Amino acid sequence: MINIQTYVQADSLEQAWQLNQKRSARILGGMLWLKMESLNVSTAIDLCRLGLDAIEETEDRFTLGAMVTLRQIELHPGLAAYTQGAAARAVRDIVGVQFRNMATVGGSVWSRFGFSDLLTWLLSMDAWVELYKGGLVPLERFAAMPYDRDVLVRVIVYKKPGRFAYQAMRNQRTDIPVLNCAVSEMEGVYRAAVGARPGKALVLRDEAGLLAGGVTPDSARAFAAWAADKVPTGANSRGSAAYRSHLVKVLLRRALEEVGGLA
Questions:
Q1: What is the chain's pLDDT, residue by residue, as a tens digit (263 residues)?
Q2: Which domain holds residue 31?
Q3: What is the pTM (predicted TM-score) of this model?
Q4: Residue 172 contacts by C-beta under 8 Å, 6 or more apart in sequence?
Q5: Label partner for 134 (CA 20 to 30 A): which of 156, 161, 178, 215?
Q6: What CATH number did the domain enclosing 247 receive?
Q7: Where is the domain boundary, 127, 158, 189?
C-alpha cells in the first residue's frame, strides 16, 4: 500500500524537478503500478497542469508528452499511418481499455519495465527522450541509464521512411507478454528490439550483415537464429529460458517477414 503525505499539482517543470529532489518524493504517471508498491511518499507530484498530455505530429517527428496515455497512442491516426499499425499493436493488448486510458508514456518509459511493450516498440524506432535537466537523450542510452531525480518531459519519435512490425506472445490476450519484439527498417538499416526476456528490452542490429541483401525467407530465418544466440533469456512463471529463446526465433522471423513484405 502506498501512503502519500502531500499531493502537489506542479505549476512548472522547475517546481516538479525541485520537489522531486527528495528521495521520498514521486512523480505520478497513471498510478497503476506505483499504487501497488509498499512505500511512504512524502510528496506526490502531478504533471497534469503542464500541457504534456498531447501527441503532436509535424513533418519530421511525433512528440509524445509524458502524460499521453497508451490509449492515445493506440488511437492516433498519424502514428497508425506512419508505423503501418505497429504502434497500436504494441499497446492494444495491455490489460484493457480502462488501464490504457490511465497508463502514461512518461510512467511507462521512465520505469523501464522488463515486460514493457511500449519500451520495446519505441526502442525499434528513432526515439529520444527529453529530460528537464538532461536534455535530449537517445532512448537506447536512456534505457541503460540508472534511475535519477530528473523529470521525463516527453518522448520524440523522428520520422524516417521505413517499414515497421510488432510481435508478442502472451499466455492470455491481456496478460503480460512472455516475449515481445519490434523490428524496423529505416533508410535501409534494420533494427530489432526484444523485450520481456523477462528482462528489459535490448536492441539488436544486423552486425553479421545477414540482411544486407534484403529480407527473404532464408535471411529472416538466419537473422532470427543469430538473434536467439545473442539475446539473454531467463525463466519465470510465464515461461522458461529455453522457451523464450525459441520465441525469439519465431517472433523475430515473423516480424522481419512482415517488414520485408513477405507476410
A1: 789 999 999 999 999 999 999 999 999 998 887 777 788 899 999 999 999 999 999 999 999 999 999 999 999 999 999 999 999 999 999 999 999 999 999 999 999 999 999 999 999 999 999 999 999 999 999 999 999 999 999 999 999 999 999 999 999 989 999 999 999 999 999 999 999 999 999 999 999 999 999 999 999 999 999 999 999 999 999 999 999 999 999 999 999 999 999 97
A2: 2-43
A3: 0.95
A4: none
A5: 161
A6: 3.30.390.50
A7: 158
